[in-house]
histidine kinase (Streptomyces omiyaensis), 419 residues
Amino acid sequence: MNGGSRGAVAGLVPHSGSLRWKIVLLVALACASMALTVGVLVHDSVLRRSLHEGAGRADEALAKAMEEAAAAGGDGPLVSPAELPDALLRQIEHGGAATFYEDGPPAPVFWAARKEGGKLYAVETDMTADLLTRQALDRHMWKYSLLTLGVVVPATALATELPARRLRRVARTARRITAGDLDARTGPVRGGDEVAEISAVVDSMADSLQRRIDTEQRFTADVAHELRTPLMGLVTSAELLPEGEVTDLVQGRVRVLRDLVEDLLEISRLDAGAERSRPGPVDLADLVRDSVARTGLAARVTGRGATVVESDPRRLDRIVSNLVVNAHRHGAGPVEVAVGGGTVTVRDHGPGFPDDLLAHGPQRFRTGAAERGRGHGLGLTIASGQARVIGAVLEFANAPDGGAVATLRLPRDGPPADA
């Protein structure tokens, strides 16, 4: 089964949390309630009519029997009190004449009785035909109510499929925007209903967010470029200062400022998609050892055999060095770097990554709690951006026994063609 078929089947499968199936269930309950109400009302109305007509027929039969008996000179339909139902006898004692319905067995009958001259006269009328008619009517009402439900429920499910599909389309667009795809749009939606309004609002929100981010990226790039020229002059001037404690302090601050501007320029290039991978064969273990050595920081590197990967060595070096520097700056020793297969893991034994970073990923100018050390929050942001350029996945987690763990997973087939 292909993807389109799976999607179509998934759209028809009931889901307890789906608005579409809640509507179908509501319509089914409404139809069932209406059918039950109408059925009870019709049944009660037909029963009252049947009893009324039965009482009339019984009275007519009693009157006719007494007339025929009088014409023939007989006593008419005399009965013994023992032959009549007790409820009918009580009614006769109060009113002298009464009718009573007895619902069998062996068959439903309607009694009509009258007391004249101390004598008791009564006849019974068979109501079997009326009972069978009511039963047949009840069966037909149940059958056609179920048939109506069998038509209405599928028709409602089909009628709600289009708005449900449009809502799922809006939800997919919102999820793509949440995942970082700011070019995702719902697109034009026909109709002027609430779904079309939601679609338009989501697209408008995405456009507004895209404009804000573009403005921020342009501002970051412009500031970094504008600072670069005077900063180079400042670096040169600081190097010409006479040796001394103040000179060392000034040169140290200038280097920090230079690194910050270079990081901002790199982030602006990553945001603009201007970075391109230049892959080649790389001995991963040797590259990691060289990267750690260039940081000048202590870290124990372990590797399981020689692994040659197809990747961009400069960007790999940038990722590994940033991870090691971040582990020392915001974590605690010992820092361990493990190389195995196409995976590089950097772990420290500090307080671990903050919950916000684990939930949303690294963000520029955000370093978590103050006790995690100094920094601008750019190192992990750059590492994540460079990982995307080479088609790698950079994951962040906290070890069960404490410490932050950053895992770089390189693609098996090298960077993607559009990296």
Summary: Residues 20-159 form one domain. Confidence is low (pLDDT under 50) at residues 1-16, 369-376. The two ends are 32 Å apart (CA to CA).
